[in-house]
């Protein structure tokens, strides 16, 4: 599903990723750990074509992301959902409209939008908030809406970059449970975090980066 082959990336001659080779299979749940500055976000951005490696190859869902043309990137983004720490919800749009947005830009019919958005909101447990503005929601609910927006297209991969960075330990647990549920339905999930508490909550593969270099793998149990 995801493959990085000898991937390197530098910013101003400083390495952000150094010779990273990594394979993630369809249906896996992977925690991408490492301290701030380790290269986690750079790695995730490469998977959606937002960064290009200086060296190496990146494959996602059978596509060579490294050589994607600009016009092919929207297709990739439909297959790869993303969730970030800062929610990035549109403040003047309702919960429903925020989640509908990725479908609107694709020209999906209003009937299908209604069905898909309702399904996504239900999956994350905020269907009852559909007509509210983001500001009226708790931080945990806002992050759930972001997750709904990320899965509304039925992506094959879900990438989350510090998705619990603004949440307390209890909400962190709830959000991680939600990712596990989405994973259990078949979506490959990659969660990048520097928060060691997240690790205690999942029995999953842990991939650790340190200063842009992959650390040999371990497995943890909750
Ligand atoms: N757009 C950028 N311009 C310059 N340096 C960057 C940029 N993005 C990341 N970096 C640098 O690359 C390294 C890895 O950053 P990042 O991938 O954000 O790490 P993490 O997500 O693990 O905190 C850091 O040294 C960071 O300062
Ligand atoms: Mg980061």
Instruction: Sketch the topology as an H/E string, one letter per element.
Output: EEEHEEHEHHHEHEHEE
Instruction: Count up the domains.
Output: 1
Structural class: alpha/beta
What is the 3D shape? globular
How much of the sequence lies in strands comes to 25-35%
CATH fold-type name: Rossmann fold
Which oligomerization state do the chains in this entry correspond to? single chain
Helix content: 25-40%
Total strand segments: 10
Gyration radius, in Å: 17 Å
Architecture blueprint of SSEs:
Blueprint: E1 2-11, E2 14-24, E3 29-33, H1 40-47, E4 55-60, E5 63-64, H2 73-79, E6 80-84, H3 95-104, H4 110-124, H5 139-151, E7 157-161, H6 169-184, E8 188-193, H7 196-199, E9 205-210, E10 213-219
Parallel strand pairs: 3-8, 3-9, 6-7, 7-8
Antiparallel strand pairs: 1-2, 1-4, 4-5, 9-10
Features:
single chain, about 220 residues, alpha/beta, Rossmann fold, 4-stranded antiparallel sheet, 10 strands, globular, binds magnesium ion
